[in-house]
What we know:
By secondary structure, this protein is an alpha+beta fold. β9 (159-167) and β10 (170-178) form a beta hairpin. It has 16 helices and twelve strands. Keywords: Endosome, Membrane, Signal, Transmembrane, Transmembrane helix.
Amino acid sequence: MAASPAAAAALLALVALAAAVGVVADGSDHRYKTGEPVPLYANKVGPFHNPSETYRYFDLPFCSPEKVKEKSEALGEVLNGDRLVDAPYKLDFRTEIESRPVCSKKLTTEDVAKFRNAVAKDYYFQMYYDDLPLWGFIGKVEKGGKAEPSEWKYYLYRHIIFDILYNNDRVIEINVHTDQSALVDLTEDKETNVEFLYSVKWKETLTPFEKRMEKYSSSSNLPHHLEVHWFSIINSCVTVLLLTGFLATILMRVLKNDFVKYAHDEEAADDQEESGWKYIHGDVFRFPKNKSLFSAALGTGTQLFALTTFIFLLALVGVFYPYNRGALFTALVVIYALTSGIAGYIATSFYCQLEGTNWVRNLLLTGCLFCGPLFLTFCFLNTVAIAYSATAALPFGTICVIVLIWTLVTFPLLVLGGIAGKNSKTEFQAPCRTTKYPREIPPLPWYRLTIPQMAMAGFLPFSAIYIELYYIFASVWGHRIYTIYSILFIVFIILLIVTAFITVALTYFQLAAEDHEWWWRSFLCGGSTGFFVYGYCLYYYYARSDMSGFMQTSFFFGYMACICYAFFLMLGMVGFRAALFFVRHIYKSIKCE
């Protein structure tokens, strides 16, 4: 019964993803004749060090047509902040152009101030030519060895040169650079006449069309980068193997001694007073407090684990090739919607096993446990983006589409999963009977309390992934490209193993101290890595990045809080499942009366 809604959701997710994300190879397969127009779209401009703070291309006073023609975009592209419009340059296939005027424009003092502010903040522009991305800076700052910004010189590039490589009738590569001699001085607030120019140069190449995207992924596949990645993997594996091996040896030896001792005690004297984890066998399977919240957290964690697994599967088969615009965001929205049935099924069936009665409230709690905080965070950050007039602000239509997906797909599947879970009629498998009244927990030293235990539990899994975290952060919150998903998948597997093992070890020591309230503790210890990752966010922001400004800071810490919360729920579920398996196993192995 447990497999059916999960399997159905999995099948639906893969089918929908094939349609929603698109093809695995490069989406544009156009062939062109000489002189035929090739589409060139201007996307966005923004400060180089603030990846979330981007604006529409024509928010700066470039040469713009009378009517700006916007390209229709997929859901993922809009979520990614892409706003593609027809660029003012005409780049026909294999047609060379030398210093052609785009327009002559009189820049007002406001225009000059706007461009100067953009140049001071290292603004870059991004365009797409035949679905190939290209970037360039809009100007430069000459400091002249002076410390005061008021004494610096600000220049705008007015001549852009496009270098395009082709193979027969296909575009293979495009690069852009600027004519350093064609500059406009923006230092003073005065009206300036500017003639914007562009040149196009074509060159033949032998690179096949199928390999044209390799240029963008090659940076992360350089021997130096691969060496660092593999070093981090080996470092993690060795650390994990040594520590888990050490813990496993101790745990197995202690458990073996426990089993021998308890078997001997049973043979010697049945009335002898019990001690250790056997002493609390009548309390260890006593259901936790706030069981509705516990079941909801377990269901949501399972859904997020399924979501992560599907994303890895798609990444490993090559769907998320570099600059497949919005594919990851589309995949996240669609898979999250389609896996909500898993959350409903797991939460409700477990809640019913814990003898819960109000399964409808439990189901609503499951639906809101992750979506609620995410929605509140989105509302605040979208308001900030609207105030900044940034492209990160989602249009009203896109918000309506997401709400419709939640209403017509996510919520119905959650309810169906909940109904299936309620009707599964499975009972909680406890090898020992639970006594009517709980035993009193003996006084415990400070290091056995919840927060110190969480700190111990989170450190080891975090140490296994922290090297790889830098590359992920540099990709998500920077301009690096991450394509080595196989290494990331290995790190993810190591993370799961270590989380499970450390939670089992801490659960054993907790039970040995005759503390039977292990349910919430195992979940919190498993998920505590999320707090360490958020701590790493603080380090990365202040020590490893040049991000600045209220909007970028809000986006970074707001969305990272949601991601770390998802980590907490997912790894908490893994920790609890491992601890539950372990506790059932050890209590099955002894004779409980």
